[in-house]
Design goal:
- Strand 1 (about 80-85) and strand 2 (about 90-95) form a beta hairpin.
- Helices cover about 45% and strands about 10% of the residues.
- It has about 150 residues and is mainly alpha-helical.
- It is built from four helices and four strands, in the order H-H-E-E-H-E-E-H.
- The chain has helices spanning about 1-15, 20-45, 100-110, 135-150, and strands at about 80-85, 90-95, 110, 120.
- The relative contact order is 0.17.
- It is elongated and about 60 Å long.
- The protein has one domain.
Length: about 150
């Protein structure tokens, strides 16, 4: 890794030389591309490490008949709830509003009540947002395109 440290410092210098406005635009495009990749991974129901999500818990016997027809986190991965934004200093992909709490419960495997009158349930950890090798390659490609283009 020490042979890459010179490259990293040079790249940091090139990024610092950009104007704050162009850094903000670059961060926003990186955040949007990361959000798209995260949405695809959530749709495939795979963690950043490549492991499949733990399946849902079995439904109680007295519940409605039939199977659950909707996949997990179908609404959660939409652009309405999963926001991407960029500033001159960083690129952020986050969940907003009330769904942020639900995403946190699933991300870390915490306790929660599915409804007000229900018992507390310990949810399995299903990491929704995280970095993998493809995300890092995506960031590198975006940086290189910006450096060549400007």
């Amino acid at each position: 890794m020490s042979e890459l440290s010179a490259f990293d410092t040079r790249l940091a210098g090139l990024i610092a030389a950009l104007s704050p406005q162009s850094r903000k635009v670059m961060a926003a495009t990186i955040a949007k591309r990361l959000r798209k990749h995260q949405q695809q991974r959530i749709k495939q129901q795979v963690t950043p490490e490549g492991q499949p999500f733990t399946p849902r818990r079995p439904q109680p016997l007295r519940a409605k008949k039939g199977r659950i027809k909707r996949e997990m986190f179908a609404k959660l991965r939409t652009a309405k709830y999963m926001k991407a934004k960029g500033t001159a200093d960083d690129a952020v992909v986050e969940f907003t509003g009330q769904v942020q709490r639900m995403a946190k419960v699933h991300q870390y495997g915490l306790r929660d009540r599915p409804s007000i009158n229900a018992k507390q349930i310990i949810y399995s950890s299903r990491p929704l947002i995280g970095f993998d090798i493809n995300d890092l390659k995506l960031i590198e490609e975006s940086l290189i395109q910006k450096m060549i283009g400007s």
